Amino acid sequence: KAKGPKGKKITLKIAKNSVRITLDGRRRLDLSKMGITTFPKCILKLADVDELDLSRNMLKKIPGSIEKFEKLRWLDLHSNQLEELPEAIGKLQNLFYLNICNNKLTSSNLPEGLSLLKNLHILNLGLNQLDSIPTTLGALKELTEIGLFDNALTAIPKSVKTLPKLKKMNVERNPFLDSIEQEDYSDPIKRVETLHLVQEKDLCSSCLMICKGEREKLHQLMEATPSSSKKSSFSSLLTPNSTAMNNQEEWRLR
């Protein structure tokens, strides 16, 4: 049986030296981009941290012992090779932020424990292999943002769409059976060509003449301004939502 990459061994000393104090005074254990292939058991001795960053590694599994991080408010596991999550993740009752974007998670491997994260405000499930979303996520009443982009979703459960505090839902690049599903969340602002605040019949003749004159000036200005066909460039935007990174596999290679 072929062995995978060995990965870097994380010692307790390395872990202690990787603890940082955030601007708001929280203790963050930052082990991102360390080439880790297996969850380092030694960090269980630092389970009193507020934030844990294991992103951009090569982890395939998170053990159930993650439940020992009882104070954890912020957990970042994005850009690994996770194929499943432990049921014990539901015991992280203080969790505010969970990022498991850009992994290999399938719908059948999403634990029911996710629905127990009653204080969760931000959940990122983008860039995975999800073809459905559990209706049980409708129990996350505090959720304000959810990322579901770049999956294989054909529908979003009503229980999730109608979460009481939900403000942002990114569902771009999913093969929805009903195209309206995506349009509802891509841009919630309905735009119109012209907005009339008053009807012309309600204006006196002098006010109407002034308005028409201003409108004519605006039209002339728009016609005189050359339109640029060049697209805006966002060279520093290296996120999955970047217009330069529409291909999922290209972004995974970073």
Automatic annotation (TrEMBL):
<feature type="compositionally biased region" description="Polar residues">
    <location>
        <begin position="237"/>
        <end position="248"/>
    </location>
</feature>
<keyword id="KW-0433">Leucine-rich repeat</keyword>
<dbReference type="InterPro" id="IPR050216">
    <property type="entry name" value="LRR_domain-containing"/>
</dbReference>
<feature type="compositionally biased region" description="Low complexity">
    <location>
        <begin position="227"/>
        <end position="236"/>
    </location>
</feature>
<dbReference type="InterPro" id="IPR032675">
    <property type="entry name" value="LRR_dom_sf"/>
</dbReference>
<dbReference type="InterPro" id="IPR001611">
    <property type="entry name" value="Leu-rich_rpt"/>
</dbReference>
<dbReference type="Pfam" id="PF23598">
    <property type="entry name" value="LRR_14"/>
</dbReference>
<protein>
    <submittedName>
        <fullName>LRC18 protein</fullName>
    </submittedName>
</protein>
<dbReference type="GO" id="GO:0005737">
    <property type="term" value="C:cytoplasm"/>
</dbReference>
<feature type="region of interest" description="Disordered">
    <location>
        <begin position="222"/>
        <end position="254"/>
    </location>
</feature>
<keyword id="KW-0677">Repeat</keyword>
<feature type="domain" description="Disease resistance R13L4/SHOC-2-like LRR">
    <location>
        <begin position="66"/>
        <end position="200"/>
    </location>
</feature>
<dbReference type="InterPro" id="IPR003591">
    <property type="entry name" value="Leu-rich_rpt_typical-subtyp"/>
</dbReference>
<dbReference type="InterPro" id="IPR055414">
    <property type="entry name" value="LRR_R13L4/SHOC2-like"/>
</dbReference>
